[in-house]
Amino acid sequence: MSMEVRLLGPVEVTAHGKDLHLGGPRQSTVFAVLALNASRVVSVDQLIDTVWGEHPPATARAQIQICVSALRRILADSGTTDLIETRPAGYLLDVAEQDVDVHRFDALLAEARRLTGQGQDRAAAQEIRSALNLWRGPALMGLQSDAVQRQAYALEERRLEAQENLYTIMLGLGLHHQAVSDLHALVEAQPLRERAIGCLMVALYRCGQQAVALAVYRKARARFVDELGVEPGQDLKDLELAILNGAASLAVSATEGPLPAPPAPEHQATEGPGPTVPRQLPADLADFTGRQGLLHDITHHLTLPGDGRIPSSVRMVGITGMGGVGKSALAVRAAHQLAEAFQDGQLYLDFHDRPADSSPSWALEWLLRALGVPSGALPDSQAERVTLYRSRMAGKRILLLLDGVSDTATVRLLTPGSPTCVVVATSRQRLAGLSGLHGVEVDVLDEDESLALLCEIAGRDRVARELPAAIELVQICAGLPLALRIAGARIALRSHWRISRLVSRLQVEAARLDEFSHGGQELRSTIAMAYNGLGLEARHLFRLLSLIETRDFAGWTAAALLDTDCGTAEDLLDELVDAQLLSVLVSAQDAPARYRFHGLIRLYAKERLLETEALLQTRAALRRALGGWMHLAEEAHRAEYCGDYTILHGGAERWTLPANTVSELLARPSIWWESERTSLVAAVRQAHAEELDDLCWDLALTSVTLFESRGYYGDWLETATLALSATERAGNSKGQAAMHYTLGTLHMLQKRLDEAEKCFNRAHGLFEAIGERHGCMLVLRNVAFVDRVRGRRESAAERYQIARQGLHELGDKVGEAHVLSNLARMAMEDDRLDEAQSLLHAALALCEETGCLRVEAQVVYRLGELHLEREETGEASLAFRKTLRIVRSTQDQVGEAHALFGLGRAAEAGGRAVEAETAFTEALEAARLAHDGLMEAQALYWLGTCAQQQGDYQKAERHLRSAGLLFDEIGAQAWQQRAQHALVSVQALAGC
Question: Which residues pair with 317 in a beta bridge?
Fold first, then answer.
């Protein structure tokens, strides 16, 4: 199936083998409701009620439309289009019921009922098992809507009923031995379900455990009386009496016998004289969760080949990861799974409480004793002990688990010489330099695995009752198993505690690590072990890194914090990575490596910072890092625009990187912008918090180079708003003017023209008051655009001419080229095509002179439009293809959508319908990626036109209806009316 929707657990969607991220809880909720009603219309009112309940906001209907548009974009990005259809009454998810696990679950249960009616009980049981195997956790996990939770409760009830039906059938088939353990678990989880209790009593009785069966009844009766104040039902009372009397009706009456029991494991070691076979593995964790891929990797590497051949060397696995990530638990689980294959024993050594520099002699003594060497026979020298140890291990199938080793030398010393043995070592340090070692890196758990682990420790029912708080707790723990175990144990121990109470305590960041302590387990001391093993300079960097609040960071950031060269900083970063205090993120685009803190480790670093570093030094370090981002953003803008064109700067201090480092980082400016996107936003936030107003507005304005081309309008709005606040607080007139200008530009692009004009008026007044002529000209350029859109053509032309002259005098050649392109557009609209061509050639000459590809693409695109006006479709296609080459080289997603749209227009005008449809489809996908709503709607409109020309009126109606809705959402009324007229025309043709 091309799409699979899974609701029986966390909401998951897979399309063409790729997992989709549905966005935030609101979008996931809307999608879940549509999936629960697959192929049926869900009204907008029902969606509003599901998302907001009894008190929806006034904008609820518009927000539902936005959610649906976002979901359509996500589905389209995966190659799956037109799945969410707009109907007069609401929306419909056009997927087959067999593609949604809830509907497959119901279908399997229906088939089981049919088979039961025909007396095919074994086949029915298999159908029920298949249905139950679809469940991955509580239905619709993570969605907090009351309406959704009511659906989840109903699904859970159907699951429990299916389990009871399965066990009833199994008892009828005489499979009580196979059912009894599962029934124990079901009754433990659901102690008030009488049917399940009765099945368990019958299964126990038939297994020869009459007394236990009666004890189950007595325990159940006591719970009923204590908690509900009622006696069990008559059926359960009659069953107790039947068991007391050994009634013949309880005997197995099935004609078919039970399924064959699984073969018993072979005897693992011969008992008798001689030393005891060492079985030293610690107990496996009953609540071990996840890690199935890693377990398979480890066991596969350490398992002998199927033909029984012994390898030529010892097989070794080194498991590494940060403290508390679950290395030991994984190693022990893998060792237990492998134990049967190593019949001569399993040896275990725990290095966690040993000093890092302690001699390995104690380990050799321990191992030799375990192998049966008496104390009096132990050699004195380490070399002799190693020789004796390897002799004792020779030819035996023994698994050696070294837990918490601190260096490679210890592993090398204790590795046996015989290839019949295997070694599993865990360490916080990377175990480099060991020939043949298979490395396994353990990362944090994902959110679903974290929630599953919390359920195992704190109790599934308890987590289900407070699911939103449990999800928040999981997010605070950020997938670190030790943190989850401590939190879960504290909740389990205090039955009177609500999970939300612990979450509330953990919200206090300064005291958060204090809360992660329980029963001898402490997160702070676990992190401290790694920290204390660092050198002084690495500790200093570790503390300073807690200053920056970005999700991840590049190596140069460490150099800025330390005020040193990048080589020195990267060496210290490597030391932190080796100690598992930082993670390395490697980009798929050959960008430099980036680094990331785990949130709880960052808290520890901040604690050490506050205890150790002086405030003045830390503020200076942070300013250097922020100045580094400012310097690189400035250089990246210069690289894209070939100079300081169309930009304004303030006087904030930069932390300047060496030219060769800048060249390396900005070899492809678009990749640098994308990799630093979240860091730039975080840097603006921190500049605002630090009251660095000049740096704040300058960085916000310069980052528009990224936000505009990639459609990151949310980032644009947040950074500009923060910077406006900072400049207003500081009385920084130039900064205020710049931020009103950039906010006006954002409003202009999003077609909020009233807000745009207000911002431009404020910006122009402030720029004029301080004599900032460049700022005035940039504002005037955009005011002219608004005038043109609003039909004030004389005013627009006048302002464009003033801006052109001003930008020319100021030497802003790229800004001048942009204005010339817009004047050409106005000339084309007035059918002055020769004038338009002259203006565009002048603009193109300026772009070629400066080398600015970004604006050159816009000018060439406008030339393509000019050729279309002249019905020169071949020349238009060439211009649009050149535009497409340029924008793809600069990774300008918005430009790519426009170029593809132009190719579609040229093909359509030339009568090449199939080519036009392909181009418009690609433009639609690109527009959705760039969050360009107007271009998305226009692409849909022309796709509808193409479908109409090809006689596919159903497709044409669907595209035009979607286009009209989008035009209406963004307020493009002229286009909305155009789409509506086209829709009416298509409907009339379809009715003929």
Answer: 424, 438
List beta partners, residue 286. none
Rounded to the nearest 5 degrees, what angle is found at the Cα of 816, between the Cα atoms of 810 and 821?
170
pLDDT digits (tens, 9 = 90+) for 832-866: 999 999 999 999 999 999 988 888 998 999 999 99
For residue 262, the 8-state DSSP code is P
Q: How far is CA 717 from CA 568, 750, 966, in A?
A: 37, 11, 21
DSSP string, 73-111: HHHHHTT--S-EEEETTEEEE---GGGBHHHHHHHHHHH
Instruction: Assign 919 a pLDDT band (cuts: 50, 70, 90).
Output: very high
Tokens of 268: 């693992």
Residue-wise pLDDT for 625-634, tens only, equals 999 999 999 9
Angle between helices 44-52 and 60-77 (to 10 degrees): 100
- Beta 315-320 vs 437-441: how paired, if at all? parallel
Angle between helix axes 467-477 and 481-493 (nearest 10 degrees) is: 140
**Alpha-carbon Rg of the chain, whole angstroms?**
35
pLDDT tens track for 672-722: 888 899 999 999 999 999 999 999 999 999 999 888 877 788 899 999 999
DSSP state of 924: H
Position 540 confidence tier, pLDDT thresholds 50, 70, 90? very high
Read out DSSP for 792-860? -HHHHHHHHHHHHHHHHHHT-HHHHHHHHHHHHHHHHHTT-HHHHHHHHHHHHHHHHHHT-HHHHHHHH
**Cα(757)–Cα(753) distance, rounded to whole angstroms?**
6
How sure is the predictor about 62, in pLDDT bands with cuts at 50, 70 and 90? confident
